[in-house]
Specification:
This protein is an alpha/beta fold. 40% of the residues lie in helices and 15% in strands. The C terminus is likely disordered.
Length: 344
C-alpha cells in the first residue's frame, strides 16, 4: 500500500480524468468552480499534498541546493547554513544539508546522493580527511553550479569564498606579542586542512617578523574538535617552561586551554594569555570571555548562495573566482593584559 495519495487516486475516486484533477488543483480557468470544489474538498479529506519533486522536475529544476558540510554542529557551519538560507528562502529555494561528519568516505557517498537528487547547485566544504578532489570532477562534467566555502581546495578550478586565515592568524599572534608574550604556543588544526595550514603559516610569519623563532615543541595538532584533541591541549601544558601565550586554531580549542589553565591554577591573562579563532557564539559569555578572530561566516554563506544562484541562471565554467574575506580581531578577557592603546 502506497503511503502518499496521487492525482490518479483522486481521479479514480471521483470518476474524473487525472488531467482534470491536476488542473483543478492548480486552479485552472478551464475547470468549473463546482468541479474545483469537489476535487479540493476530497483532496483535503484524504490529506493529499502535491508532489513538488514531480512539478519541479517538469520545469527542469528542483529549486534545491545541496549543502555538503564536514560537520553541522559547530558554530561555523551552523552560521554558514543560516547565511545560505537568508538568500535562498526569498528566492523559493530549499536546502538539502548533508553532514559528512569529517569523514572522506561519507563525503563521497553524500556528493553522489546530491547529484542523484538532481540538486540545482552545490555549496561545499571538504572534510579534514579530504586529500584529493577527483570526486568533484563529476560535478563539473555535469555542469552543476558549485561553490567551495571556508576550507580552501587546491588543484581544482572552481568558485571559492574563503576567509583570509593567514591574515587573521597574523593579527592574533601580533596581539599576543603586543601584550608582552614572547613564548607563544599554537594549537593547530589538521595538517591536511588548508585553512588550518594558513593559520599556522600566519602564526609563524608573525613570529619571524618580530624576531622570534617558531619552536616545533610549541606546536600541537588537533582535528578542530576538543573531545578528540584533549592530548593536543595537554601537550602544550606539559612543557618544562610554559608558554606565555597560546593561539588556538579555533575557539573550541581555546576553551580547552582555558579549562586546563584553570585546573592548574594558572592566572589568565596575567600568567597566560589565550586567543582563539572563529568568534563562536559562547565566546563572550564564557568566563573568562574568549579573545578571538572573527570570521564573517554568515556573510560567506550569503555570498556563496548568491554566486550559486547566478550560476544556475547563467552557468559559466570558465570564469572561476576566489573571494577572500577579511578577519576582525576581537579582544576579550583571556588576553586583556597591559592593554595597548590601539586595542582600546
Amino acid at each position: 500500500m502506497r503511503k502518499y495519495q496521487s492525482t490518479v487516486d483522486i481521479a479514480k475516486a471521483l470518476g474524473l480524468s487525472a488531467s482534470t484533477v491536476s488542473r483543478a488543483l492548480n486552479d485552472h480557468y478551464s475547470i468549473s468552480a463546482k468541479t474545483k470544489k469537489r476535487v479540493l474538498d476530497y483532496a483535503q479529506e484524504i490529506g493529499f499534498k502535491k508532489n513538488l519533486n514531480a512539478s519541479r522536475l517538469h520545469q527542469h529544476k528542483t529549486f534545491t541546493l545541496g549543502i555538503l558540510m564536514p560537520e553541522v554542529v559547530s558554530h561555523t557551519f551552523s552560521r554558514l547554513a543560516q547565511g545560505i538560507n537568508d538568500i535562498l528562502e526569498p528566492e523559493g529555494y530549499d536546502m538539502l544539508i548533508m553532514n559528512a561528519s569529517e569523514q572522506y568516505e561519507k563525503e563521497l557517498h553524500m556528493l553522489d546522493y546530491l547529484i542523484s537528487s538532481r540538486v540545482d547547485g552545490i555549496i561545499y566544504a571538504p572534510t579534514h580527511q579530504t586529500k584529493d578532489y577527483n570526486h568533484l570532477q563529476i560535478v563539473f562534467k555535469n555542469q552543476i553550479p558549485f561553490v567551495n566555502v571556508d576550507r580552501g581546495i587546491v588543484g581544482i578550478d572552481c568558485h571559492q569564498i574563503l576567509l583570509d586565515d593567514q591574515k587573521g592568524a597574523y593579527q592574533a599572534t601580533q596581539h599576543l606579542i603586543d601584550i608582552g608574550c614572547r613564548r607563544i604556543a599554537h594549537i593547530a588544526g589538521p595538517k591536511e586542512a588548508l585553512n588550518s595550514h594558513n593559520r599556522q603559516k600566519g602564526y609563524e610569519q608573525c613570529l619571524r617578523a618580530n624576531g622570534l623563532s617558531p619552536e616545533a615543541s610549541l606546536i600541537s595538532y588537533s582535528d578542530f574538535c576538543l573531545r578528540n584533541s584533549a592530548e593536543s591541549v595537554k601537550q602544550v601544558f606539559s612543557q618544562a617552561t610554559l608558554p606565555e601565550g597560546i593561539f588556538a586554531v579555533n575557539d573550541e580549542m581555546a576553551m580547552g586551554c582555558i579549562d586546563m589553565a584553570i585546573q592548574k591554577g594558572i592566572k589568565i591573562p596575567d600568567e597566560l594569555a589565550i586567543i582563539g579563532f572563529d568568534n563562536a557564539a559562547y565566546g563572550p559569555f564564557f568566563r573568562p570571555s574568549i579573545s578571538t578572530v572573527k570570521s564573517p561566516i554568515r556573510e560567506m554563506g550569503q555570498m556563496a548562495a548568491r554566486l550559486c544562484l547566478r550560476q544556475i541562471n547563467n552557468y559559466d565554467a570558465h570564469t572561476p573566482q576566489t573571494q577572500l574575506l577579511s578577519p576582525e580581531l576581537i579582544i576579550r578577557e583571556t588576553s586583556r593584559r597591559g592593554y595597548p592603546k590601539h586595542y582600546a
